[in-house]
């Protein structure tokens, strides 16, 4: 897609959905294979051979056209639409993270996704004071013209959404756009659909599972200029969101609490590690002054039409594969280091790594690192 602001055709959108729903294709792999083949249709055709060359014994599962059509129909039936990375309506900030979802499902007021945003997250079993403060901070951020992002969990998340409901709040769901979780937030879920925006990267009907929440958290931080942690234990998912924010180049804010309260340990630790101490929306606004960096305010351009003029030959790949596999292990390793050690071109190394990932033998880690599964 050479024009980052041009909507996809219906056929291309269906192919994008089929590709991201195919076996062993995550967001990073999606973009790499698109860069290599130029279109989702060509990538879908190439998947079986790539996985086979990577050492996969059985055929890779390519998402059937009928399955993707059913998913798109289910999204429409839920009052939502699918927006692709690079299209109008895709959140500009989110497009800059390495593993931005190729497609998101959006229900509600999509214009909120273009607003500068701050995430407010914290404990599910929050104190009364913590809940009140989360609502006050969210309301203050809303009055300042910022959207408030959270995960629609009980506790801090729910009160943050409540505080910004009148001015603009975005709920990032771990499950499908039509699945209410937790059930006690059903009324809030419906209110956000009417007054705010709901987004998800999973298929409609998907019931949230434990593995979905860390992936949901990267979207919460990816949508925002910064993340405010109000209350969180040391093992809280909110601290995962804070770590992801740092990896994405976002600001991290924390509300201090009493050392006698286990729910204050997470924020207090973040402050010791360099997070900005905040006690009000004014503190957050002051810290963000001047941080509306222009590159993050514009969608990251995507161009899948500019292909490598000389893709690696099968002979080149065959000669490089053993050396590249030998350099890999269970510990994450920088891709740049692999390239320096094996003395093959970046195109060859990238293609072999892509084959291994599609075969289910390679895992990507933050910071352009990979390891064998």
Q: Keyphrases for this structure?
A:
373 residues; Rossmann fold; nine-stranded mixed β-sheet; 12 strands; Arc Repressor Mutant, subunit A; alpha/beta
Description:
With about 375 residues, the protein is α/β, with parallel strands linked by helices. Among the domains are: about 180 residues, Rossmann fold; about 55 residues, Orthogonal Bundle (Arc Repressor Mutant, subunit A). About 45% of the residues lie in helices and about 15% in strands. The protein has 15 helices and 12 strands. The chain has a 9-stranded mixed sheet with strand order 1-2-6-5-4-3-7-8-9, sandwiched between helices. It has a 3-stranded antiparallel sheet with strand order 10-12-11. Helix 1 packs across helix 4. The two termini are about 30 Å apart. The model has no long low-confidence stretch (mean pLDDT about 90).
């Amino acid at each position: 897609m050479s024009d980052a602001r041009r909507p996809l055709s219906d056929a291309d959108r269906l192919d994008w959905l089929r590709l991201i729903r195919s076996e062993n294709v995550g967001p990073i792999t999606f973009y790499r294979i698109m860069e290599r083949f130029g279109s989702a249709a060509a990538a879908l055709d190439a998947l079986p051979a790539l996985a086979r060359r990577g050492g996969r014994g059985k055929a890779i599962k390519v998402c059937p056209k009928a399955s993707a059509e059913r998913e798109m129909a289910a999204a429409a039936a839920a009052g939502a639409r699918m927006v692709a990375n690079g299209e109008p309506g895709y959140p500009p900030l989110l497009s800059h993270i390495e593993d931005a979802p190729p497609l998101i499902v959006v229900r509600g007021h999509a214009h909120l996704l273009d607003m500068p945003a701050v995430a407010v997250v914290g404990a599910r079993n929050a104190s009364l004071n913590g809940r009140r403060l989360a609502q006050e901070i969210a309301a203050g951020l809303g009055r300042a013209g910022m959207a408030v992002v959270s995960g629609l969990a009980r506790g801090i998340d729910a009160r943050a959404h409540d505080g910004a409901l009148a001015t603009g709040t975005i709920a990032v769901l771990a499950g499908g756009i039509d699945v209410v979780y937790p059930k006690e937030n059903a009324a809030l879920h419906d209110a956000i659909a009417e007054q705010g925006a709901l987004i998800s990267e999973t298929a409609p009907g998907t019931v949230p599972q434990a593995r979905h929440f860390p992936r949901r958290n990267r979207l919460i931080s990816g949508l925002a200029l910064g993340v405010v942690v109000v209350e969180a234990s040391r093992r809280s998912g909110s601290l995962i969101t804070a770590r992801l924010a740092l990896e994405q180049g976002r600001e991290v804010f924390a509300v201090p609490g009493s050392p006698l309260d286990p729910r204050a340990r997470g924020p207090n630790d973040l402050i010791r590690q360099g997070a900005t101490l905040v006690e009000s929306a004014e503190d957050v606004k002051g810290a963000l002054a001047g941080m509306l960096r222009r590159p993050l305010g514009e969608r990251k351009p995507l161009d899948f039409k500019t292909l490598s003029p000389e893709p690696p030959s099968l002979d080149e790949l065959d000669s490089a594969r053993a050396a590249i596999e030998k350099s890999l292990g269970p510990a994450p390793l920088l891709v740049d280091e692999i390239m320096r050690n094996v003395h093959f071109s970046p195109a060859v190394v990238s293609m072999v790594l892509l084959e291994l990932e599609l075969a289910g033998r390679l895992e990507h880690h933050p910071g352009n690192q990979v390891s064998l599964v």
